[in-house]
Amino acid sequence: MALLYYVLGIAEVALLIMAISSGIVVSVLVGRQTESFQGDCPLAGQVIWTSQTNFELGASDGLRCMYIVGIQAVAAAVAFVYVLYRVISLCCGRFDFSIMRIICVPLYSIMAILILGEAAVVSHGLNALCDGFRSLQVVTANYDCELFQQVNWHIYDGSGFYEDFSKAEKSGWVSFLAWVSLVAVGVLHCVAERPESGFTPPNNAK
Prior knowledge:
By secondary structure, this protein is mostly helical.
């Protein structure tokens, strides 16, 4: 049963590292675009076409992007603290307390819900922005969202907006997958340590 203990522990560490990495990617990319848009958030912004070649962007409240950055920053910090604990507990079994694994399940669940909200905000916001660009029906023009990285946004710097937000979108869903998987690993830990399972962590850690 010691093998199961180490397999679950290593899987948990790997998932925590994945959560940290993806969270940092989202925070950096969204934060960079927030700076490019002078503190405003282009996600779900209103595209106003003034002609067939010119548009204005009514950016959404900056709190939207701040929420995304903040949630992922908190999630990365939580994952970092807990990955340190898991590494120490794997190396020194006496520091592996059962109460910590009981606490981690609701904690992981809360983080998964928050990250789900963050990922949904990015996906919906980017789709809404791109739909605004596509709203001008011109048969002879190609209005793919990515194309608008090359045009003049007037008061904003829109270069790289689609690339950054699409990467942030993918990373957000990777982060969500990592936290959901952590919930599953935490539950497996708790189930495996029930008295009737006969599972005892190395060094009889409790």
